[in-house]
Amino acid sequence: MASASSWSEENCSCPICLDVLRSPVFTPCGHNYCRTCITRFWDEQVRYKCPVCNELFHTRPDLRVNTFISEMISEFRASVLAKDQSCLEPGEVPCDVCTGPQLKAVKSCLECFTSYCQTHLERHQRIERLKRHQLFEPMDRLEERMCKKHDQLLDLFCRTEQVCVCQFCTKRDHRSHPVVPLKEEYEVKTAQLGNIESGVEQMIQKRKLKIKEIKDTVKLSTKDTERAIADGLQALTTLIRCIEKWQDDINQTVKAKLKSTEKQAEDFIKELEQEIEDLTNIRSEVKPLSHIKDHLLFIQAFRSLKDLPPTRDWTTVEVSPLSYVGTLRRSLDQLEETLNMEMMKLCDAAELKRFQQYEDDVTLDPDTAHRRLILSEDGKQVHSGGIVRKLPENPKRFTAHQLVLSRQSFSSGRFYFEVQVKDNAEWWLGVASESIKRKSFTRFTPKNGCWMISFNNNKLLFREEHAVRLLLKGELQKVGVFVDYDEGLVCFYDVEARVKLCSATGYTFREPLFPILSPCLFNIEVGNSAPLIISPVNQTD
User: Fold this and answer.
1) Rounded to an integer, what is the distance from CA 225 to the centroid of its chain?
2) Pick from 292, 412, 304, 433: which is nearest to 358 by CA?
3) CATH of domain 4-84
4) Would you report the helix, strand and coil content of the chain in percent, each value rounded to 5?
């Protein structure tokens, strides 16, 4: 027996409608037609004949179902549909009747609680009783979509009780409640979901940023820890060297003192031995005379004796036992002073290295520069030209003093910058509040919103109510400025020597702070030959 797979669509087609046979019947001449097609054809004819072979029939033939052909057609339809219908895609509803590979459902019956593919839907399109069933677009989990109370589709939404309801529910339990179609509520909820998704996404991104911030903090802490360990090791090594040097110095001092005492004792002993030798010689001469009984001979022999040699009064001579208490005390005091100085230098160097991590890109603002000042194009250098230039009026410009502010301001956190001051006979630098006086003379003190150090006549000063002179051990080449806005701290450093020049603490900043520079605040005759240069940080180990 031939299988349906060996049949072509032509073998299964109705000669009248040219479509695949539906309810196939055959005529006495053996040709197959759709029952509907041949019936309609004969209804329109006077004589009954076969549309294919034109054989005439005296009476209207009694049409019978071709069972064999029907089975073959069913198999053919199933094979064709199986080929035409692709495999289920994610989200598509499967046919509940398919026993083999499940095909995609094309309709769902809410009375049968079943979803059908095109093949298994055929009974609902053919049988009168099933034709009355309500068919809808494919839906999954049909039983969950039906009202348990009224056995109807849940196609409405009650906004009062926030539940899905059917048409009958709205006539009783939810009669006075605002009810909308599910589609409308779906659109509302979809919009809300979009807002939720957007909000959740923002929360996720914020938390990811927080994680990154924490990781960066841990990473920075790790680096700080490694740096602290290295600085500690360097400090300890330096202190050990100081102690070793002190030990060598004290050893040499004690040994030198012992050597001096030994030399003194050796000299005393040599002198005593010489006196003993001289006295022994005299004794050897004197002893024979004691045996002469003749008065004349004794007197004559006595006259030939030599005079006693000069000798030291040894009763006042002594070698004092050595005592090192005073020596050790003085040496320990010197060691303590040296260690304190080294510790201070090491702490300053470690502190400077840590603060350099907060370097900010600072450029000078030409709108604030005094008319005598000349700025470089990149805003990193300033020097005094000595000549008043014609510049546009600007409320931000300094007119009373040769000063310039940075473009950048800082209202929180920490920042650091460095200024090269080498070969400048006079300069001022630091930070200033936004409200600093620009058109009139003022004292540049913290009280007036200025934290600055100045150099003039080989004197380095911190500008307070009474200027404080700072210790200057050598020529300053580069000055570092660190500010912790929240802690109210301003520090100045000699970058090359890596030591702190001074620090101002305990302030409360209430305005934005600007880096401020002046290559010559008062000298209006001749400008400095070298500019002040805002230079990048070059950290050294």
Assistant:
1) 17
2) 412
3) 3.30.40.10
4) 40, 20, 45
Paired with 298 in beta bridges are: none
CB 19 within 8 A of CB 13: yes
- Residue in this structure with the two tokens 């069972």, named with its chain if needed: 67
Continuous H helices in 35-145: 35-43, 67-84, 122-126, 128-131
For 489-541, how does the pLDDT look when each residue is reduced to its tens digit (9 = 90+)?
Answer: 999 999 998 899 999 999 999 999 999 999 987 655 544 568 999 999 986 54
The ranges assigned to domains in the chain are 4-84, 218-316, 359-535
Q: What is the pLDDT of residues 156-184, one digit of tens each?
A: 899 888 889 888 888 888 888 998 988 88
359-535, CATH topology level: Jelly Rolls (2.60.120)
Give the whole-angstrom CA distance, residue 492 versus residue 480: 6
First to last CA, the chain: 95
Alpha carbon dihedral 15, 19, 20, 25, in 10-degree steps, equals -40
Q: What is the 3-state secondary structure (H, E, C) of 296-327?
A: HHHHHHHHCCCCCCCCCCHHHCCCCCCCCHHH
354, 532 contact by CB (below 8 A): no
